[in-house]
Amino acid sequence: MPAPEKNRFYEDVSLVLSRTSKASAVIGALLLLLVFYCWKVQVLDHRKYWALAEANRTRESVVLAPRGLITDRQDIILAENTASFKASIIRENCRDYERSLAEVGGLLEIAPDDLKARVAKYESQPLFRPIVVKDNLDLKDVSRIESRRLELPELIVETDPRRYYVFDQLAAHVIGYMQELSPQELKSEAYAGRNLGDMVGRTGMESQYESTLVGVDGQKTEVVDSQGRTRGEISRSEPTPGRDIKLTLDFDLQRKATGLLEGREGAIIVLNPRNGEVLALASFPTYDPNKFITRFSPQEWMELINREDHPLENRAIRGLYAPGSIFKLTMALGALEAGLITEQTSFFCAGAASFYGRPFHCWQRGGHGALSLTEAIRHSCNVYFYNVGRRMGIDRIADSARRLGLGDKTGIDLPGEKEGLVPTPEWSRSARKTDWYLGETISVAIGQGPLVVTPLQVALHTAIIANRGRRVAPHFLMASPLGQGQIPGTAGESTPAAKIRTEFFETVIRGMWKSANEEGTGRGARVEGFDVCGKTGSTQLIGRERAEKLGKQIKTHSWFSGFAPRDNPEVVVTVLVEFGGMGGATAAPLAKELFSLYREKYD
Amino acid sequence: MIDRRLIENIDWFLIGLLVLNSLLGVVVIYSASHYLPGHHYLRQLVFLGASLLALFLLLLVDYQLLMSFSFYLYGAVVFVLLMMLVFERFISKGSWIKLRYFQVQPSELAKIALILVLARLFAEYKRSHVSIPAVAMSSGLVALPFLLVALQPDLGTAVSFLPLLLGSLILAGLKKKAVIGILILSVLAGVAGWTFYLKDYQKQRLATVVFPGRDPQGAGYHILQSKIAIGSGGFLGKGFARGTQSQLKFLPARHTDFVFSVIGEEFGFLGVVDVLMLYYLFLWRLFRSAARSRDRAGIYITFMVGLMISFQLLVNVAMVIGIFPIVGIPLPLLSYGGSSLLANFLGVGLVLNVKMRRFANI
Q: Which end of chain A is least crowded, N or C, by CB within 10 Å?
């Protein structure tokens, strides 16, 4: 094709064309600048942006380890884990913190002040940490939160294994309850590796065996999108579940014991005297440990701790009571061993006697007449033991009490046990700054005066008598071949009580048998064919004379403690009912119910 | 009728580069949106076919004829834009007119009308420097659709009308005084715009170009996420459809305005350079075509089309790598969107039209 010749259609456009090429050169230069900038961002600053992208897309979170189960001796589950939903707020994602709190509060029906107080507790935590604002969401709450995901990116729902106490308040004082770790605790050595919002056992088995029950939390790294939604997992280390523990508790006896105390204030302990296994331990009033898991509102908590009947107190190990007539067994054993009396020694009861210039009364106004030791135990005669007490003196009495399990911690595997008090003249001088009055010895002789013990000590005391002097360590953790941990104090080393001659125990036990089976004070506990041996106690809260002056009917604490059968004892039952009246009238019939249930079940 | 010589003179190489770039766009759009409902990449493929068809149809008509109708075309576009403002509630949503199966953005097509009308205006302009009345006339012609589009409000598209005006004035020959005058005017317009026109979010965007880290969840979010995407791509990139920023939706407008970030993240610096080189090859061929035009009008058309595409390319890339405020300007040929693709294809069609008719009287 020939080159086009210039004609009038082809004007001179060279000027315009040169402007074109200049402009396109400028564009090329600008494009080159952009390439250089890309080099800076992509190659020179690559590490920085790469790290930012990784942080963008990954989120580390904890996979909670399920806590070990707690079962009774027949593997009935008392404490387990269920899935629960909880709502948490991530402050980092709030657009307007105040408004967001108000909206979250409204959505989940939390009082604004409660919510504020709750979030304020964790002020010092990093902003990206979720703070739990409501537990135990129902499905309605969950769907309400999910539907507002986009408007409230700060509010998230998480699932958790949650502790669940299957039978609510049953054995609450044994199992204990759990609470969230406080921010201070989180900083301490003891809870290294625990996380915000973790629960920890505060009382009972949950606290005692915390290290067994608690597992090792796992961790997962998830990929999240820009809305914070999970898109998959990158890595995951599985949690190690906590180990289960099996308790010595017997579900039926425990339920019976709790039921018997319903509407009263008191404690019941059932244990096996041979090995110290606690079959039931009930304290009433009680509480529902599930409430602690679901995070109390402050009012609920204040109400619970300020209640006059103190439901959180475990009366069985922390309640201090005068043992009353139950102490007469200690007196008898101590005096027999010291050779101060024999089985045949008799004293005359005229309804009252005078010691150290002061009158002391028997509960039987008319008096019991002349009584031998076993008869004195059977009828629980005060005057008899006033005389024994005078012969023994306070030091021997105290020695006998300590040897028989009173006035010391029993060493049970339940935190918070109290010691009680077996008074001595030294104690009087150092603690009271007064001398011991001889008249007090007479009061102590029938289990009154400054003497106080816990119901568990009485149960152990009864077990020692039942064993004819062999002491056992009461405990809840079932021995198992797998080894759940060291069962405390089961070593059968020779204990001081073992030095007392068996025949003395037999004498006292004969009295106890008569008490229950031969129309004694403990007759209410008699179970046909089970040979219950026991002793009642009724502890005066104020002096009888004063009460009579006031014209008031005295309501005493009501005790019964006994074992059965007489030979080769299998079970010890101790009952204390506060303000229950006479031991024979209130406590003994409750014990009877437990003896019969035990017999039905195990014989 | 179409002469055989005309077909012989079609620049197939330019068409090849155009289609290649657009197909690359489809691939990246797939990566950026395959997990979303709507099959964006398939739709883009359909748009591509339709735009190519429109381009060939455009070749049938001599650009001289098109220019002679340009004022009617211009009038029609201005009328549509005006109607969109007046009856905004009924027919449109912002800059879009919603039709049954797709939506049209008339402001994109307004560019083609503007190119034709400006070319017509300057076709017979043979002085070495532009006169005041010519400046006033051409400015007025651009200002009208500019205002209408800016009021929609679609500042990005409105701003992309300006290089057309500037390009035609450059070709017509601006005196130094005039350049200074334009600079002063644009500063004044900037100040006035900042005070009266810009919405708060737009001001924030301008501010965050300087300090993107200041408010990472707010206005700086898009810039920061885009920079993270590009920067984390590194030299070789994370691989096709494996960019965490885009696949996990941290990146905003991934398949539209921020498609370049996806390229940066998934194909790395190497990919960025390759794409820009391919693009520059296309632009270079486009600008080179100016020398192949029969008349002054042809040069104007070619130059303005080249400028239109280059401007959008430069602004878009500068925007996603965080050195220019975020205005809604797509990456031409690569971003998802039918109207923008059609406008660019028609623009290239005009250039081809000029080029194939470079021999007179055919």
A: N
Does B45 reside within a domain? yes
| Stated pTM of the model | 0.62
Nearest to A43 among B234, B280, B321 (CB): B234
Residue of B nearest to A45 (CA): B231
Question: What is chain A's percent helix, strand, coil content, to nearest 5?
Answer: 40, 20, 40
Question: Which range among A53-57, A360-364, B76-80 shows the weakest confidence by mean pLDDT?
Answer: A53-57
Enumerate residues 6+ apart whose C-beta is below 8 A from A269: A278, A280, A281, A282, A316, A455, A456, A459, A572, A573, A574
Residue A62 in tokens: 């904890």
Closest to B234 in 3D by CA, of A439, A51, A443, A140: A51
CB contact under 8 A, A50 and B232: yes
| Closest residue in chain B to residue A52, using alpha carbons only | B228
Q: Report CB contact under 8 Å: B248, A37.
A: no
Catalytic residue among A325, A372, A380, A561: A325
With CB atoms and an 8 Å threshold, state whether A20 touches B283.
Answer: no
- Indicate if A235 belongs to the active site: no
Smallest Cα distance from B84 to chain A, Å: 32
Instruction: Tell if the CB–CB gap between A24 and B167 is shorter than 8 Å.
Output: no
- Establish if B318 touches chain A: CB-CB under 8 angstroms: yes
Please say if the pLDDT value at position B42 is more than 50. yes
Domain-by-domain residue ranges, chain A? 59-246, 251-290+313-476+488-602
Q: Which two tokens stand for residue B142?
A: 């651009």
- Residue A37 touches chain B, beta carbons under 8 Å: yes
The DSSP element (H or E) to which B92 belongs, if any, is strand B92-93
Interface test with B, best of A7, A26, A49 (most B CBs within 10 A): A49
> With b meaning 16 or more CB within 10 Å and e meaning fewer, what string describes A422-461?
bbbbebbeeeeeeebeeebbbbbbbbbbbbbbbbbbbbbb
Do the Cβ atoms of A13 and B296 come within 8 Å?
Answer: yes
Fold classification of A251-290+313-476+488-602 is Beta-lactamase (3.40.710)
Residue B115 lies in a domain: yes
Instruction: Assess whether pLDDT exceeds 50 at residue A5.
Output: no
Domain that holds residue B166: 4-214+293-356
Q: Does B156 touch chain A (CB under 8 A)?
A: no
Please check whether residue B10 lies inside any domain of the structure: yes
CATH number, domain A59-246, options 2.30.40.10, 3.40.50.300, 3.90.1310.10, 1.10.287.990: 3.90.1310.10
Greatest alpha-carbon span in chain A? 158
Domain-embedded: residue B210: yes
Read off the pLDDT of residues B182-240 as tens digits, 9 standing for 90 and up: 778 877 877 777 666 666 666 666 666 555 555 444 556 778 888 888 988 888 888 88
ipTM over cut 0.90: no
pLDDT for A453-489, tens place per residue? 999 999 999 999 999 999 899 999 986 544 444 444 4
Q: How far apart are CA A379 and CA A584, in angstroms?
A: 11
Mean pLDDT of B79-85: 89
